[in-house]
Write a structure and sequence with these properties.
- This protein is α+β, with helices and mostly antiparallel strands.
- The protein is built from 26 helices and 17 strands.
- Helix 8 links the parallel strand 14 and strand 15.
- Helix 6 packs across helix 20, helix 10 packs across helix 17 and helix 12 runs antiparallel to helix 13.
- The radius of gyration is 24 Å and the shape is globular.
């Protein structure tokens, strides 16, 4: 995992590329590489920040040329099955032991459209066909690796992080009102290729595009998707036992692939079933250098949300030493400064304090010397783990007139006690058509197109919406940003495309059965886990006392910043000041069903707008000085 900067323009790009590169050096502290070319008045620049994970020698430096010299690659990410691909396609006499070399050789051998079909991993890459004077751009299936772009009348510019582009003269800080309205009204981010600024886009996941080296101002050409999953029920001839066994085998292989590294590997163990499965599989494997995988956890002793009890169960089960960290941000100015730091790294407002705690967890990983961290991200979306899925399924059955089936299905969850004890009306209201639109300003209100979060036609289709739009993209975004801030790499076995495809086509009654969410996953690994973990009823996220922090420590700061009549969010027409203050007063007083995110989102957005203006001013000054 690394960072990259690219520019192709009719104006010189050296100053921009080097300044942008410096902005994101923490993504790759192990090495840097550049390539600058000029031909017929067109300037090309590449910069690479290297975080060495496999093949640690200088032979893995980028930008990297193919053996023939025809292709040059600028790559961020990991293709986990590169060793298998090298063997499958007979790639010999490789100069390095990196995945990057295998990738560029396969692209030359097969063509990029065919090559990416074989890649199992996460990536953002730019590949130059030198002989054809053409560039290819590609991003992984789920958009785990970021890639932002800006185009003006002179050319096209790309970087791994959006703030690295803010120094460009043609980039302005006008916020994208559609992006803001989604975030403020429904707590949605990273839904499509819109960024937080009108002048910058996100390159879409699961896509390939081309850039004509002779015409950089034309931007991206021939944008096409190379993958979309099939969802629907498993063929009837495949029995339940066969489906569960196939699922277990796929998760095992996905984890095996993601354990390969030439640096220390760890698993973030929470005590839930997803991270417990990954921990169990990882502890059975030996790393490439013979080291065992490290386990580490975030705990909060004394809190009702503390996961120590479940972590203890897994530690005993695995006979493992689990390193524990108490993630308590400093009070007062320390909490505010941490929030600002995370917003700066996030390239936008954070949705909750979970980002802050993940940032602190990655700091803990760095202190332990763990470079690669495996997580359980993606299992809830792939196998219906969230509490909303049974409710949506009941709604689907009732809409189809299948009253008896809906009653039987609901009774299982009611009897098992796996929904109502965990149900929170304040959080669930967005799935019944409610939104936070009353605090929107005129620009955001006009741009708002409410997502139908409570609608469902089939479970597989709804899961895909969560994976491609409503849930996974933002989770991947904040995991990438908070981990790369500490030069750590996140790997997610449950987001192996083969695992996701199986979750989409698996029958609903294997994913939700007898009052259990993620039933198939529980059955697949019940023999590998303690029963109290495999069949745990409650579900906790990355919990923290966020309401206490917002109503307590941060309340005076929120009132001071959001009380100003000239706050950025008010001047941009994104938030209505009177509506916001009334809602924040109700939240602090405990009146009505005001969700934490309803009042935190406008505050976080204001902090980001302040931060973006500071970054842009600083970058433009540095480029002028250069």
């Amino acid at each position: 995992m690394c960072g990259l900067v690219f520019a192709l323009s009719t104006r010189p790009v050296l100053s921009f590329v080097k300044t942008a590169h410096q902005r994101q050096l923490y993504r790759g502290p192990d090495g840097e590489g550049f390539c600058f070319e000029e031909a017929a008045g067109i300037y090309m620049g590449m910069a690479h920040e290297r975080l060495a994970i496999v093949g640690l020698s200088e032979s893995g430096s980028q930008p990297m040329l193919s053996a023939s010299g025809r292709f040059r690659i600028l790559f961020n990410g990991e293709v986990y099955n590169y060793r298998e691909l090298a063997q499958q396609f007979g790639l010999r006499n490789l100069r390095s032991s990196t995945d990057t070399e295998v990738i560029v050789e396969l692209i030359e051998k097969l063509g990029i459209d065919a090559a990416v079909q074989h890649f199992n991993g996460m990536w953002a890459m730019i590949v130059q066909d030198i002989s054809a004077n053409r560039f290819y751009v590609s991003r992984d299936r789920f958009g785990k690796k970021p890639l932002f772009l800006h185009r003006d009348e002179r050319g096209i510019y790309m970087a791994s992080e959006m703030h690295s582009l803010l120094g460009l003269p043609s980039v302005d800080l006008t916020p994208d009102a559609v992006t803001a309205s989604r975030f403020l009204a429904q707590s949605l981010q990273n839904v499509d290729d819109r960024s937080w600024l009108k002048s910058i886009q996100c390159f879409p996941p699961a896509s390939i595009a081309e850039i004509d080296g002779n015409n950089p101002s034309a931007g991206l050409r021939k944008l096409r998707s190379y993958w979309s999953p099939q969802y629907g029920n498993t063929p009837k001839e495949q029995r339940r036992e066969e489906s569960i066994e196939e699922l277990k085998s796929l998760v095992q292989d996905a984890t095996r692939l993601r354990l390969h590294a030439d640096v220390p590997v760890g698993v973030a163990l929470s005590g839930g079933i997803d991270s417990s499965i990954i921990s169990t599989l990882a502890m059975k494997s030996i790393g490439a250098q013979g080291q065992r995988t490290e386990l580490f956890s975030a705990v909060n002793p004394g809190s009702k949300e503390d996961e120590s009890e479940h972590i203890d169960v897994m530690a005993r089960h695995l006979s493992a030493d689990v390193r524990r960290f108490t993630l308590k941000p400093d009070e007062g100015s320390g909490l505010l400064n941490l929030l600002k730091t995370c917003i700066r790294h996030a390239d936008g407002p954070v949705t909750s304090f979970s980002s802050l705690l993940f940032y602190k967890l990655m700091e803990s990983a760095q202190s332990l010397g763990i470079t690669v961290v495996l997580t359980g991200q993606g299992a809830d979306e792939a196998f219906c783990g969230y509490r909303k899925y049974p409710i949506l399924e009941i709604k689907r059955l009732l809409k189809a007139g299948r009253l008896l089936e809906a009653t039987r299905f609901a009774s299982g969850f009611l009897a098992n006690g796996t929904i109502l004890p965990e149900f929170n009306l304040t959080e669930a209201k967005r799935y019944v058509g409610s939104s936070n639109r009353s605090i929107l300003g005129p620009e955001a209100s006009d741009a708002l197109d409410l997502a139908a979060l409570g609608e469902i036609t089939s479970m597989g289709e709804r899961q895909w919406l969560d994976i491609s739009r409503y849930s996974v993209p933002y989770l991947c975004h904040y995991e990438d940003r908070m981990s790369m801030a500490w030069s750590r790499e996140i790997r997610s076995p449950f987001l192996d495309y083969r695992v996701v495809e199986m979750g989409g086509r698996m029958h609903e009654r294997l994913k939700m059965k007898r009052g259990w969410t993620k039933y198939a996953l529980r059955k697949a690994f019940e023999s590998e886990l303690p029963a109290s973990i495999a069949w745990r009823k409650d579900k906790k996220g990355f919990v923290n006392p966020q309401d206490d922090w917002l109503k307590g420590t941060l309340q005076p700061v929120v009132r001071e910043i959001m009380g100003c009549t000239d706050a950025h969010v008010y001047r941009a027409g994104l938030v209505d000041r009177k509506g916001y203050i009334e809602r924040f007063d109700a939240y602090c007083a405990g009146r009505g069903h005001v969700w934490f995110r309803d009042v935190f989102a406008p505050f976080a957005l204001e902090l980001w707008m302040i931060t973006a203006a500071e970054i842009a001013q600083d970058l433009k000054k540095k480029q002028c000085d250069a």
